[in-house]
Amino acid sequence: MHFQLSEEHLMIQKAARDFAQNDLKPGVIERDDHEKFPAEQVKKMGELGFLGMMVDPKYGGGGMDTISYVLAMEEISKVDASASVVMSVNNSLVCWGLQEFGSEEQKQKYLMPLAKGEVIGAFCLSEPEAGSDATSQHTTAIDMGDHYVLNGTKNWITNGGTASTYLVMAQTDAAKKHKGINAFIVEKGMPGFTVGPKEHKLGIRGSDTHSLMFSDVKVPKKNRIGEDGFGFKFAMKTLTGGRIGIASQALGIASGAYELALAYSKERKAFGKTISQHQAIQFKLADMATEIDAARLMCLKAAWLKDRHEDYSTAAAMAKVFSSEVAMRTTIEAVQIHGGYGYVKEFHVERLMRDAKITQIYEGTSEVQRIVISRAILG
Ligand code: COS
Q1: I need a labelling partner for 77 at 20 to 30 A (CA). Which of 105, 126, 361, 363 fits?
Q2: Is 310 considered catalytic here?
Q3: How far does the centroid of ligand 1 lie from the alpha carbon of residue 298, in Å?
């Protein structure tokens, strides 16, 4: 075992850091303020290969490992978590799921443009009454022979308005419970598919979150992913990898806030010396640095297991629950270290504190992660 990043990993980390500082930082406060989707920046992310990092180059991706993805997610999330959630959903929930379980035809038609970042995707599992209890799908997909007919509503869909390709879970045979759920590729513009109003959120306000409505939407059978009844397994397997993405997003939010607090503490003077010379601040910084280091190791371990094709579900759940809670604690302390300045927008840390909260909720709440972990250790 060694803890050293390869030359290639360091190059990817630097490319992500440069992109975040040069392209995402300018305007990040205004985008948050006006709930403005970072369209130009997402386009550039696609051109730089950040939207299909782990996809096989033959399908237009970067052919990189999950460790590279964690490193890039951390750097981008330090600056703009609204942009990094687009990256996480597109890479982990959409591209990975299609590469792993899609047919060759689906990969050629849908994965290729998604991996190149020419279009973006959305993952549609949550419903008004199905969040953590994901088996309780009310959206239906009736089998009509050569096509399915979809009816229902999805909630809280990241990239809901801007995506072109939607992976939608729906119940085909309620008697079979979760074994009757299917996953479908739905295109924007299919008759009967409408995008509902945009959500106005506490954090990640630049990201585009919508409800979606399906009213007698005809989806060709060739757009079903995997065998009949594979939809719930598809969602669970895909979300397991997604949790590494959100864990690294949380890690980035925490390390971004920590770096700002550290720099500020060396400049700001109180009682005749910089606040970094006061033990009250030193101990806060020491705790932040320790927890961030632990969160980073957990994210990298989950990624390493995934790259080795070993079981990573418990490691991903542990990384997500820990990193998201570190993000919350760290950002609260970063605001505290900044004092009154921390409470105003110009210093970035209040935004990071608001952004941190969602990482404890989406892609499996902290409570769901604890269910996954406790089942793994108790059997
Ligand atoms: N990978 C593969 N299969 C999995 C899996 C995983 N990580 N987790 C569960 N499954 C499978 C189980 O093996 C089981 O299959 P079989 O019936 O063939 O044995 C099936 O899925 C149902 O699993 P289980 O009985 O554990 O379902 P529960 O209803 O108890 O739910 C939780 C388990 C709570 C862990 C699951 O529903 C979950 O993760 N919920 C949160 C969903 C979520 O993240 N929502 C956010 C939406 S996206 S922002």
Answers
A1: 126
A2: no
A3: 22
